[in-house]
Fold this sequence. Notes:
Helices cover 19% and strands 31% of the residues. It is an alpha+beta fold. The protein has one domain: Alpha-Beta Plaits (2-Layer Sandwich).
Amino acid sequence: MAKLRDVSRHIRSKQAGPxxxxxxxxxxxxxxxxxxxxxxxLSPDVFVDLFGTDAGLVKKISVPELNLIKVSYPRATxxxxxxxxxxxxxxxxxRLLDVELD
Length: 102
């Protein structure tokens, strides 16, 4: 099985307001995008396991023109809270790098 790090050109995470995080995944080409865009490795359940979010609130948007998938999910705590460890959510994507895609 391929890992996300092997079939993507670029992955980034960022804040999407004080209550949401967005992860952008650019695949390394149309072939990879078409093959993995609906992979179970990018299902809401994976985001529940990795980020402790509610599967019903995970939003996934495909942008085929850019070979891109955007996934947004609610933050566990609001941005800037007392237990904040990644204020701008710039490091959240790292948990996805070794996710296996089918």
